[in-house]
Amino acid sequence: MITKKILQIFNFFIMFSFLSISSIFAHEGAKGVVKERMDKFKMSKSMMQQINTNIRDKDFKNIEKASQNLLIWSKEMSNYFPEGSDIPPSEASKNIWLDPDGFSKAIQNFEKASLNLVNQSQLKNLDGTIESFKNLANTCKSCHQKFRN
Question: In angstroms, what is the C-alpha Rg of the chain?
Fold first, then answer.
C-alpha cells in the first residue's frame, strides 16, 4: 500500500516536472526581481524533487529540512511580485495583480501545505508525509494554472 502511494507520488511529480520543462529556458535574459523570483522558484522545484526522493528513502530529516526551506519561501514569496514585473521573460500572469486576493490565498495555501509537511515529517508519519507532499504539489499546480503564463 505504501509502495503504491510512493509510486503515485513519483509519477505525479514526473508529470509535474515535464509540464514545467519550458521554465529551463525562461531564465534567459531575466534581470532584477524577475530573475530573483525565477531563481527562487527553481530552488523550490529542486526542494520538491529532493522531498520526492527523500520520501522514497523514508528520510524524514531531509524532508523536514527541504519543507522548512519551502515554508520560508512561502513567507517571502509575495515580495517578489511587484506590480509591473510581468514583462518577458517573466511567466507571471497579469491575474496576480488583477486578483490580488486570489493570489494571496494561493500563497497562503502553499504556506499551510508546507507547514503541514514539516509537521508530518517531524512525526515521521509516512502516510501523512506522503499526503502532505501531494497536497503541497497540488498547491503549486493550482497556482501555476491560475497565475502563470
Answer: 15
CATH code (residue 112): 1.20.120.10
Instruction: Tell me the pTM.
Output: 0.82
Structural domain boundaries enclosing 118: 33-147
Question: 49-55 contacts: CB < 8 A, separation 24 or more?
Answer: 49/13, 49/17, 51/117, 51/133, 52/9, 52/10, 52/13, 52/133, 55/6, 55/9, 55/126, 55/129, 55/130, 55/133
Structural domains in the chain (count): 1
* pLDDT digit string, tens, across residues 55-93: 999 999 999 999 999 999 999 999 999 999 998 999 999
* Strand partners of residue 92: 148
Query: What is the distance between the alpha carbons of residues 46 and 123, in angstroms, rounded to a whole number?
Result: 23
Residue 113: inside a domain: yes
Q: Is residue 110 in some structural domain?
A: yes
Whole-number Å distance between alpha carbons of 131 and 116: 10
Peptide bond into 100 cis (omega under 30): no
Flag whether 64 is in a domain: yes
